[in-house]
């Protein structure tokens, strides 16, 4: 078995959280050693909770690791370690990056310039509208949108990106075998198809309240900047803003009605130095992100054949080249030629596994 398999097993044990995992690996050096070391040796080390040791001993059976890994594979979930190429680059640079990330969908190079949009679950009509517009405008500028797939602001930010041909990434506070909230199941499928869904929690982990503050550090850690749309003074979105500041990310806030509790948090952020945002130009200028051309502008000089391939990739990305061939019914040489032209024009990108996406 791989060290990664042992690491996933250790990560799945009751009582072994992010900090505990870090401590155990610091002491023993590897998850495989923890699996194989004698009971006597385990109990020798001070500072390790006896309940944790008992959990490790009770579950040290090879078949349990195989069953766990197989269950993850059946859910089409990828396992990323910090050293893996697809592990998000921005996350590697925060104070406490997850040892393991569980992923559905794909991470691409341009995600390094992603912008996070967060805010109230019980957002006002104004808040939902602003979140959608921000998601839409970022998508049209070619910027990946990150959020937490919660009700309200998160949901509308994801939809704004998806419904305008953009990429979006959702960070969950539960295992990827659970959709939370349940009403966002269709949205979750769309995000997986046009971006990625990530979690540091193993399959079977429920959306417990205590998971979400830790989840928020990943939202801010993956982004170049965080926009807070609506938030009360005690909102979890302000926790995300605090993480962003600690991680050296830019914090932006949407101004709101001074009499609205949902704007009390964002207005305070602005008073404390967050950049006031009225449109995405304020965000992109501050982050020094160059705006890519709108997708419609990109299509101006495409031939009929190139446009046909481009449109299929746009609607189905990431799409495997074999599936593209099945849809078009063209010969291999013809499709390969058009794909090459679109790549040379800087319009599409081929990922590992022969997957095609818009660039």
Shape: globular
Q: What spatial order of strands do you see in the largest sheet? A: 1-2-6-5-4-3-7-8-9
Mean pLDDT over all positions: 90
Query: What is the CATH class name of the largest domain?
Result: Alpha Beta
Family: Belongs to the DprA/Smf family.
Domain DprA winged helix: 301-354
Protein name: DNA processing protein
Domain Smf/DprA SLOG: 80-287
Question: What labels would you give this structure?
Answer:
359 residues, alpha/beta, DNA polymerase, domain 1, Rossmann fold, Arc Repressor Mutant, subunit A, 3 domains, nine-stranded mixed sheet, three-stranded antiparallel sheet, 13% strand, DprA_WH, WH-like_DNA-bd_sf, DNA processing protein
Short summary of the structure?
The chain has 359 residues and is an alpha/beta fold. The chain has 18 helices and twelve strands.
Structure explained in plain terms:
- With about 350 residues, this protein is of the alpha/beta class.
- The chain folds into three domains: about 5-75, DNA polymerase, domain 1; about 105-285, 3-Layer(aba) Sandwich (Rossmann fold), CATH 3.40.50; about 295-359, Arc Repressor Mutant, subunit A, CATH 1.10.10.
- The chain is about 50% helix and about 15% strand.
- The protein has 18 helices and twelve strands.
- It has helices at about 5-10, 20-30, 30-35, 40-45, 50-60, 60-75, 90, 125-140, 155-160, 185-195, 210-220, 235-245, 260-270, 280-285, 295-300, 305-315, 320-330, 330-345; strands spanning about 80, 100-105, 115-120, 145, 170, 195-200, 225-230, 250-255, 275, 320, 350, 355-359.
- Helix 9 links the parallel strand 4 and strand 5.
- The chain is globular and about 70 Å long.
- The mean pLDDT is about 90.
- This is DNA processing protein.
């Amino acid at each position: 078995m791989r060290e990664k398999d042992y690491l996933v097993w250790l990560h799945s044990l009751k009582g072994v959280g992010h900090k505990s995992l870090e401590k155990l690996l610091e002491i023993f050096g590897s998850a495989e050693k923890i699996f194989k070391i004698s009971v006597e040796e385990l109990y020798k080390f001070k500072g390790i909770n006896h309940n944790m040791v008992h959990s490790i001993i009770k579950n040290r059976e090879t078949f349990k690791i195989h069953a766990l890994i197989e269950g993850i594979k059946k859910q089409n979930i990828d396992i990323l370690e910090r050293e893996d190429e697809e592990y998000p680059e921005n996350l590697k640079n925060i104070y406490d990056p997850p040892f393991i990330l569980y992923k559905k969908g794909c991470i691409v190079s341009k995600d390094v310039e992603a912008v996070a949009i967060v805010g109230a679950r019980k957002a006002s009509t104004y808040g939902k509208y602003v979140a959608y517009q921000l998601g839409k405008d970022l998508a049209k500028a070619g910027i990946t949108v990150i959020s937490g797939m919660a009700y309200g602001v998160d949901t509308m930010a994801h939809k704004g990106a998806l419904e305008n041909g953009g990429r979006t990434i959702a960070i969950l506070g539960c295992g990827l075998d659970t959709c939370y909230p349940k009403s966002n199941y269709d949205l979750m499928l769309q995000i997986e198809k046009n971006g990625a869904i990530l979690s540091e929690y193993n399959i079977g982990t429920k959306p417990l309240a205590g998971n979400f503050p830790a989840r928020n550090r990943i939202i801010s850690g993956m982004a170049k900047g965080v926009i807070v749309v609506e938030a009360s003074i005690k909102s979890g979105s302000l926790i995300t803003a605090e993480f962003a500041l600690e991680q050296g990310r830019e914090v932006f806030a949407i101004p709101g009605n001074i009499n609205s509790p949902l704007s009390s948090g964002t207005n305070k952020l602005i008073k404390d130095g967050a950049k006031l945002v009225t449109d995405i130009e304020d965000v992109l200028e501050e982050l020094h992100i160059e705006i890519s051309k709108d997708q419609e502008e990109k299509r101006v000089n495409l031939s009929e054949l190139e446009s046909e391939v481009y449109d299929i990739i746009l609607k189905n990305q990431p799409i495997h080249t074999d599936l593209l061939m099945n849809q078009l019914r063209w010969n291999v040489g013809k499709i390969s030629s058009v794909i090459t032209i679109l790549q040379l024009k800087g319009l599409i990108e081929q990922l590992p596994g022969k997957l095609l996406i818009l660039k």
